[in-house]
Amino acid sequence: EREREREREKDQNRLDRRAWRASIIDARVLTSINESAKRSAEPEHAVERISKLPESGLRGAALAVAATLWHFIATSEGATDPSRLVHEPANRRVGGVERKPYDVAAVKETCKNNNVIFVTGTAGFVGMHVGIELKKRGYSVLGLDNYNNYYSVALKRDRTQKLKDVGVVTVDGDLADGELLDELLSMCSPTHVLHLAAQAGVRYAAKNPLAYVHSNLLGFVTLLESVKKMEPMPPVIYASSSSVYGLNTKVPFSEEDRVDQPASLYAATKKSNEMIAHTYYNIYGMSLTGLRFFTVYGPYGRPDMAYFFFTQRILKGEEIQIFEGPNGETVQRDFTYIDDIVDGVIGSLESAPPSVKGEAEFRLFNLGNTNPLPVTTLVENLEELLGKKAVKKVVPMPATGDVLATHANVSAAYEAFGYNPKTDLKTGLKRFVEW
Q1: What would the pLDDT profile of 311-351 be if each residue is shown by its tens digit?
Q2: Coil, helix or strand for 13?
Q3: Which of 53, 228, 365, 433 could pair covalently with 413 via S-S, beta carbons 3.0-4.6 A apart?
């Protein structure tokens, strides 16, 4: 008992020391900010926003950084009027990201209908195509996207315009903003939540891992927490990835296979999504369906995908690199055309059981083409369609998390909602090249 008492005293002393350090930093830094901010016409806004951070050492650190930056900006040679640098935003900051104002009236107009689908990632490749098809089928769609700059924001804006042309509203916001999600879901009461937003890309995860943690983990949990508050809870359909199969050697990949050997951080976050989803299904009776996409391609696609940048470089006469395995193995992918993916996404949505304990289900489906082809075949088709030979260089596959081959078994999706991919690679690439 005496030993436990001593440990409690030590813990309390540590907490007291942290609180003391935080208070000293707060006092000094607030004074520094106030002194520097006197040069501004509107200093109170900066101080007010920073002071609302939780009482902790983290707050002190944030205040210190803010004071330093404020002093640098305000005193730099050629600095603009500080009153223009600090302004009252339309809403507060969330996780370091300024919340942008959105058209509340347009959102409410969308939400008048009884068949609203809330879709995250509508400015993304799959999100845009699914949103357009949902509208064609008579659904109303409310979208969310943060327009990050992982690749061309202009392309994302073009996709948003395509959606706007058919009546889809996209709110510019961050998935980790729980209050924003609560607002949108309470306004709309969607019948389904379709979660397609994510930080994509296998190789980029080696450069910016925290972007994946923020979007794919924090964003996903924040969304499920908002859905959990709804009455009734809508079913959630979310994008997973074929990357979860990682270093598996058994082909074709089946949903029954073990997926505990991810080859990249991106794959690990997607596997984590599936595990988190099972937790919410188990505890709250939330209906959750995960979709493992296999190498999706087509018009308005992602510029970081090989078919896209190969096309650009072939047209420019630039060299393209074709990866091979450590023993000279050919890299193969189960290339899946966007229209087939859209059919699978909507099929899974329309077949999703309700979020009611006893009826809810935890489901996983592969959505692929079932016909893996070498990347060299992709290049040969592009050369034929473009009427131009590629300048090719074969190089070893870099150790950034890519796998040698992917191959989907889609029998589960076929049985559940009739998924049946129809588009061969050459037909799909022809449509992409024409775009």
Answers
A1: 999 999 999 999 988 888 889 999 999 999 999 999 999 99
A2: helix
A3: 365
* Catalytic-residue membership of 266: yes
Cα 282 from chain centroid? 24
Rounded Cα gap, residues 280 and 286, in angstroms: 6
Which tens digit of pLDDT belongs to each residue from 241-252?
A: 999 999 888 889
Strands 336-337 and 296-297: parallel
Eight-state DSSP code of residue 255:
T
Comparing 216 with 85, the larger pLDDT belongs to 216
Average pLDDT of the residues of the chain = 85
Give phi and psi for 10, each to the nearest 5. -60, -45
CA-wise closest residue to 355 among 281, 273, 275: 281
The CA-atom distances, in angstroms, between 419 and each of 261, 348, 350, 352, 366 are 27, 9, 12, 14, 10
What's the distance, CA 204 to chain centroid? 13
What's the rounded Cα separation, in Å, for the pair 240 and 102?
28
- Stretch 273-297: mean pLDDT: 97
Torsion sign over Cα 253, 259, 262, 268: positive
Flag whether pLDDT at 265 surpasses 90: yes
DSSP 412-427: HHHHHH-------HHH
| HSE of 374, CA atoms in CB hemisphere, 13 A | 11
| Residue in the block written with tokens 């001593």 | 6
Give the integer Cα–Cα distance in Å for 319 and 313: 7
Which tokens is 232 given? Answer: 């009734």
> Which tokens belong to 257?
């296979």
Nearest to 376 by CA among 305, 299, 307, 296: 307
Identified catalytic residue from 204, 212, 266, 281:
266
Q: Which residues contact 89 (CB under 8 A, 6 or more apart)?
A: 98, 99
CA 167, CA 155: separation in Å to the nearest integer? 19
Q: Above 90 in pLDDT, residue 188?
A: yes
| Cβ-based neighbours of 178, under 8 Å, separated by 6 or more | 222, 225, 226
pLDDT band per the 50, 70, 90 thresholds, residue 21: low
Tokens standing for residue 145: 């996207």
Strand ranges for 299-349 from DSSP E: 319-324, 332-333, 336-337
